[in-house]
Amino acid sequence: MAKILAINPDNPQPRLIAQAAELLRLGAVICYPTDTMYGIGCDIFNQKAVKRVYQIKGRPRDKPFSFMCASLTNISQYGHVSNTAYRLMKKCLPGPYTFVLPGSKLVPRIMLTRQKTVGIRVPDSPICQALLQALGNPVLNTSAQVKDEDAWLRSAFDVDEHFGRLVDLIVDGGELAPEPSTVVSLLDDSPEILRQGKGDTALF
């Protein structure tokens, strides 16, 4: 059964964040709250942990997961960011958006699509931000939801019920009103909305 760690969603306790980051560093798969919903993730550089997430989600290997970075500066290490893309992202990050970009050589192959693209988020979540800073690496980001698309998991209790036997840690950040992120392709200078979710798309 997963350990449950209650962390203040507004003022995350550094000691508890350090515990979660250390587990990620050791290859743990965790559930955690974001600015959109509870997610499942791991250190993107731990291939064994990434493969576990594929198994948990029952996802084919040719559909890579997106991942979270701590900042726009951080994004530019893992994705090729044009001047247009930079200006657009600067307006709305951190926020509930996933941006599709050409991946850089730093991105592990298991996280790249066949077209060598990546999906990257900078969530507006103090817990996520603190975790990313403490770990020092991007964290894989996929929704903690059951196969029924309408069955959103709102709390750590819900997450534990469905994923508690499959993950190592659940970070309890309180109850959320789940809504997926808006996915925007920035592969060229004309942004393309691939999925409408939380977040204002008028910016694009």
From TrEMBL:
<dbReference type="InterPro" id="IPR017945">
    <property type="entry name" value="DHBP_synth_RibB-like_a/b_dom"/>
</dbReference>
<dbReference type="InterPro" id="IPR006070">
    <property type="entry name" value="Sua5-like_dom"/>
</dbReference>
<protein>
    <submittedName>
        <fullName>Threonylcarbamoyl-AMP synthase</fullName>
    </submittedName>
</protein>
<dbReference type="InterPro" id="IPR052532">
    <property type="entry name" value="SUA5_domain"/>
</dbReference>
<feature type="domain" description="YrdC-like">
    <location>
        <begin position="14"/>
        <end position="199"/>
    </location>
</feature>
<dbReference type="GO" id="GO:0003725">
    <property type="term" value="F:double-stranded RNA binding"/>
</dbReference>
<dbReference type="Pfam" id="PF01300">
    <property type="entry name" value="Sua5_yciO_yrdC"/>
</dbReference>
